[in-house]
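Record now logged for everyone:
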Amino acid sequence: MPDLDDRLRERLRLAGVDPSALFEPGLDPWHAWLRLRDHYGRRATLLDLYALEAASQGKRAEELSPADRGRLVEAVRAMRRYGPAQVLPGSARSGDPHEVVSYDPAWDERFTRWRERLAEALGSAASRIDHVGSTSVPGLAAKPIIDIQVSVPDVADEPSYLPHMQSAGLILRLREPGHLFLWPPAKPRDVHVHICGSRSSWERDHLLFRDYLRANPAASARYAAAKRELIKRWHDDRKAYGEAKTAFVLDTLDAATEWGETTGWCP
């Protein structure tokens, strides 16, 4: 039987996959992961695929080669929540810090400077510009990169806003349905900018997650503890670190939705 942890074995069983039959003809790691994805949706993560691939090689997930990890990342990229993602050639960078640090009040000041810069460049093309992500929650440990969410009336209408973003010193990194991702060309990066549609689920989820953590210190503390533990395990793999937070984020969004309904929260 493949060397899988008990939790993944049980999830496979619930998805209709017999763990003892894994890696027989017609049930390679990719097809087993697709069965997980059909059953669990977004909760079937890249890390599950890492674990399945590693088990097929007699390894732990952390021991997969960079080549294997890259292959699996590319395979999953086309299965993203909002549809296939296009990574722009020439936009990659390396050498940026990959760490979780204690909250820094200067993060809010950095956001304010970037917000002014983007607002001046975009004018009426932006419906709103928000500080989101962990650096937007006072007291929360985070990777020291500011996440900024820019809402526009129509993400598909790139000529109405993209040249303005580029004039503000950003380059396009990723394009997918309903979302563009930009960052500065120089390293180390200090900001990520996400373009989303006004009143979209993308906009709402990020604002709701932020406001719930701001209003619930206990949930914020649990998130900080989870991130510090995960960065130890995935210190050499940004993508895996991000994917490892999926279950916590989705559980927190469920709790935040209930909180929002109770409190009358609105974006």
About this structure: DSSP finds ten helices and six strands in the chain.
